[in-house]
Design brief:
The structure holds 2 protein chains of 2 kinds. Helices cover about 0% and strands about 50% of the residues of chain A. Chain A is mostly beta strands. In chain A, strands 2, 4, 5, 6, 9, 10 and 11 form a 7-stranded mixed beta sheet that branches. In chain A, a hairpin with a 3-residue loop joins strand 4 and strand 5. In chain B, the strands form 2 sheets. In chain B, strands 2, 4, 5, 9, 10 and 11 form a 6-stranded mixed beta sheet that branches. Chain B contains no helices and 11 strands. The termini of chain B are far apart. Chain B is an all-beta fold. In chain B, strand 7 and strand 8 form a beta hairpin. The chains are: A mainly beta, B mainly beta. Chains A and B meet through strand 4, strand 5 and strand 9 of A and strand 4, strand 5, strand 9 and strand 10 of B.
Chain lengths: ~120, ~110
Amino acid sequence: NAGVTQTPKFRVLKTGQSMTLLCAQDMNHEYMYWYRQDPGMGLRLIHYSVGEGTTAKGEVPDGYNVSRLKKQNFLLGLESAAPSQTSVYFCASRQSGRGADTEAFFGQGTRLTVV
Amino acid sequence: GEDVEQSLFLSVREGDSSVINCTYTDSSSTYLYWYKQEPGAGLQLLTYIFSNMDMKQDQRLTVLLNKKDKHLSLRIADTQTGDSAIYFCAESKMKGGSYIPTFGRGTSLIVHP
């Protein structure tokens, strides 16, 4: 029972490089989210998706792009990495439901360092 | 101001009770959550409370909700060293027609012998 799986778990990038983080969930959840976690800042929402083929901006979307071509996958892309994007990235998913009546399930995180 | 506010650190002695406080902003939040993050791990749901409840108890955990003041607290009885973690308060904030889990900065709970 995998739940939410993030790949890779660790990555070091040089400034200006690009990469894609993959989030996969096997719970048939409609909603998926990408957060970044920085010390003392909690989790800040980057982008989210309310269903296959849809994406929307969160609180800190600049420098990131996302795609949700398949319901089970939510990809987070960095086109040109910057040191300010050094962070731990978490993906989450949850079932759709009226209001907020469903638990969000989290992946284990991707630790990204941009040098 | 921030949507969800909580203090950053709490230190308690093993066996004592811990109380972590949180204030939130969205009065329409249906559910309010407490998540726990152990070192190097993702977030796990610890407990939640419906907005029409004042209190919820689950073994050593007690959640109190004051909807009028938008204040949420988590009490951990008989705190153990294994409870050392970061605890996040979260509300589901309406955005663009859907509810988005919105987190506080997290409270680092340190339990010492």
